[in-house]
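Can you give me the bound-state structure? Components:
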Amino acid sequence: MREIQAEDVVEAVAGMCMKANTELPKDVRNKIEQAMAEETSSAAKEVLRQLLENADLAMETKLPLCQDCGLAVLFVEVGDDCKVVGGNLRDVINEGVRKGYADGYLRKSCCDPLTRANTGDGTPAVIHFDLVPGDKLKIFYMAKGGGSENMSRVTMLAPAQGWEGIKKYVINRVAEAGPNPCPPTIIGIGVGGTFDHAAKIAKKSLMRDLDDTHPDPEIAALEKELEEALNELGIGPMALGGKTTVLGVKITMESCHLASLPLAVNVQCHSQRHEEVVL
Amino acid sequence: MAEYKLTTPLTDADMEQLKAGDVVFLSGTIHSARDAAHKKLFELLDAGKELPFDLAGSAIYYVGPSPAPPGRPIGAAGPTTSYRMDTYAPRLYDLGMKASIGKGKRSDEVKAAMETNKGVYFGATGGAGALLSNSIVESTIIAFDELGPEAIRAMKVKDFPLLVINDCYGGELYVKPNLDTAE
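Here's the bound-state model for the whole set.
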């Protein structure tokens, strides 16, 4: 059994929190540059130009890209043949988040749901664990902003509604959200599983790079179809009109109950701050 | 679309000239307040107590900045989504607030309050928090320190870049989605 030191996990997680919040990932930057080249409206171009200037400034000053440094969401794949020594893995990851948010001057946005009292250190993070073959520990981090999260929904469609029903629901959701989630957005979609699982796989879809292609060509085609349909809404950057309402659509499909067609739509803002590390 | 340079406190005349789509560079002092601060402001109002700043001619910025790193007056400071303050905004416009600053849609009640009181709603670019912080030259917590990022700050701004989203004549800049594709 391979051993991984707790302090290495703390450093890795802290590093991802700081990097993701200050350096716009390359895949996102590329998409914004591409969108800017394709937009014809001056208002849309100006918003995208500001987002690129913002990214340059954040990189240079180490200021966060956005004041909403998100709730820390992590997907952790633990290899069967490795174990973390020197602390409980959940505690160790939270320690990394605590350190990253403190050292990086990131906003701590975690609070009690009813009293609204801030926990003060950005934790507890939302952590999803999975067991996988191998002796590696893989950690995905996302800074998930509240404005776009609030526009997300889970629904249970009837099986007869099928793909057309899914498509209609997603289009209406993005239309209704309008300017609120900071378009151009990225739409993570979970289809199948159960009520809870659909939401989880929708979120995990957002961990994919924007410029990747789904390995299943049929799902890749559905992603493209939906992306084109969403961009026809004309909402555009900051809802000032334009061709770029979404930067991407990422779908995960899993099997589900005979009676159900669970659908989760997880909306992510253009500031898609994500990182991953393998230990 | 016209461009204006305005300075706080804002007047009826300032607001009357603005149309949805105009660009405004705002200077002077604006106050940050979001969910928790609004709740506390309303507790003060309901108790008949004085507010921590003068609402007359004011601009409230819906923002919860990230902590100021050494050598800067403030961290990233872009707008948060405004609809969460819709239950509070009409009363504040009635009491003299001239502008709110945020991102995203407002309710019909807020739009009506802007028409009645000659108020406007400005949009700042969401997700451009680092860039917008460059226009904030000073920031001081003046109330509700215990709220951390949600405390009320007096922010001195210089040419803070804004777009008029809703004007005082019922005009709105946001585009309506073309839903033909969904039918």
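A couple of observations. The longest helix of chain B spans residues 35-46. Helices of chain B lie at 12-16, 35-46, 89-94, 108-117, 129-133.
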